[in-house]
Specification:
D-Maltodextrin-Binding Protein, domain 2; 2 domains
């Protein structure tokens, strides 16, 4: 248990946005009712005039003030964050200064700050904050009445992920999913079509065996070991949600006799035993070094592959027995209850600028977040932008609209962290390291999961 909890802390601090769930039971990524973004309109809900970028021009209502902003973006994405915060500080006409603190210990630090009653004004964190800290966060729906931001410009399922009932605790900024990457040069050397990744998991295993070259320390497959935040995406595509509502509308685990989960356990164990998949957690580094044929990772991997000059392809992970799945954890902005009224309004102005820019903005912050970092967007005006549309990488990462976007379990189940660390991780290890029968491991996982619901 200590080992898995330690792993959880490390991965959480590195990834920041994990363990989020989606309350859209239908799972559809429904964009039917969204607009293409504001343009020189008047916000009807507040009557505030807006500029050509959709930002309200009422600077008198916002006083010059410094606001505190905490987050955990210590990687290359943090550089984009710093760039745009500095830009806002220099150019905004309100006299607002955003004082940002980026810290790898953000999750630990914010927990202590909330407990001590001295939280920052604004935070950028996971949607699970709605369950952890509802008493310390304001209802972000207010931003749609005092700024030009429009609720319909967000993919609705992700707004639902960040809400409890009608209260929006987190304004969605980023979705974090998993994708399939493949090394085109290794594919070509193995006699495979370098322009096409495997479309099934049977092909994945078969092609991995053809790519593996032990004399060169090359592995055909790179599903990371001890990395439940990656393997859970494969499990869900093969066997569906880990917890879901039963016929009596009660939350229940779905491990016992789950054929999709059993398939994953045997599929993964088989590649490890054959030597086609290393027992290695950091398969990203191996992929960047050109030693992995096919892997599963987040959008952040593309930056490293580009820098290393790897000739690679990227696509949605293959669908398994659970149908069309595109689970994503969600993260975004929250204003805390520690913020004064002036600080709250200043934070809203910053967020309005983050999503819409102003009359002098060529690339909004939310659009550049995708263009520079390679993350698919959840903000419709950014998705509809021609620069986003022209990126083949972003197009490959932007999931189908009919996919199930729910991550792990419906949002009514609030113990996804515990589910991953206490149930899913040990289940995989019992099969791979302990040689336990897959169905026996699933039966034990079912019992453990049931204790989380009681």
């Amino acid at each position: 248990m200590k080992r898995w909890l330690a792993l959880f802390l490390v991965l959480t601090l590195c990834m920041t946005f994990v363990g989020c769930s989606n309350g859209n039971k239908g799972g559809s990524n429904n964009n039917d009712s969204v607009s293409s973004g504001p343009s020189g309109s008047t916000d009807k809900s507040s009557g505030t005039a807006s500029d050509s970028k959709g930002n309200s021009n009422d600077s008198k209502s916002v006083k010059p003030i410094a606001i505190s902003f905490w987050n955990g973006y210590t990687g290359s994405d943090g550089e984009v964050l710093m760039e745009y915060v500095e830009k806002f500080n220099k150019e905004n006409p309100y006299g607002i200064t955003v004082e940002m603190d980026i810290n790898a210990e953000f999750l630990t630090k914010i927990a202590a700050a909330f407990a001590g009653g001295k939280a920052p004004d604004l935070v950028l964190g996971p949607s699970s904050f709605k369950d952890q800290y509802p008493n310390y966060l304001i209802d972000m729906n207010e931003i749609f009445t005092v700024t030009s931001l429009k609720k319909e410009n967000w993919v609705s399922s992700y707004l639902d992920t960040c809400s409890v009932g009608d209260i929006l605790y987190v304004l969605p900024m980023q979705i974090t999913g998993r994708f399939m990457y493949w090394n085109k040069d290794l594919f070509k050397a193995a006699g495979l079509d370098p322009e096409k990744g495997p479309s099934t998991y049977e092909e994945w295993a078969e092609w991995a065996s053809r790519i593996t070259d032990k004399s060169k320390n090359i592995y055909g497959s790179g599903v990371p070991y001890d990395s439940v935040f990656n393997t859970c995406h494969l499990l869900q595509r093969m066997g569906g949600l880990f917890v879901d509502f039963d016929e009596n509308n009660k939350l229940t685990p779905r491990f016992k006799d789950n054929e999709g989960y059993a398939y994953f356990l045997n599929w993964y164990n088989g590649m490890i035993k054959s030597g086609d998949n290393p027992i290695e957690r950091d398969t990203d580094s191996m992929m960047i070094a050109g030693r992995i044929g096919i892997t599963v990772s987040g959008a952040y991997l593309s930056t490293g592959l580009d820098s290393a000059g790897i000739n690679y392809g990227v696509a949605q992970l293959p669908n398994g027995g659970a149908g069309i799945q595109n689970p994503n954890s969600v993260g975004g902005f929250s204003v805390t209850t520690s913020a004064s009224e002036d600080a709250k309004l200043a934070a809203f102005k910053f967020l309005e600028w983050w999503y819409n820019g102003d009359e002098n903005t060529e690339v909004s912050a939310i659009l550049n977040w995708s263009l520079a970092n390679g993350f698919p967007s959840l903000y419709i005006p950014a998705i509809n932008d021609s620069r986003y549309q022209s990126s083949s990488k972003l197009a490959a990462m932007t999931g189908p609209q009919n996919a199930v976007t729910t991550y792990l379990a419906p949002k009514e189940f609030t113990k996804t962290y515990e589910l991953l660390m206490e149930v899913v991780g040990p289940m995989i290890e019992a099969v791979v390291s302990g040689n336990m029968d897959a169905y026996k491991a699933l039966e034990e996982a079912q019992k453990k999961a049931e204790t989380l619901i009681q």
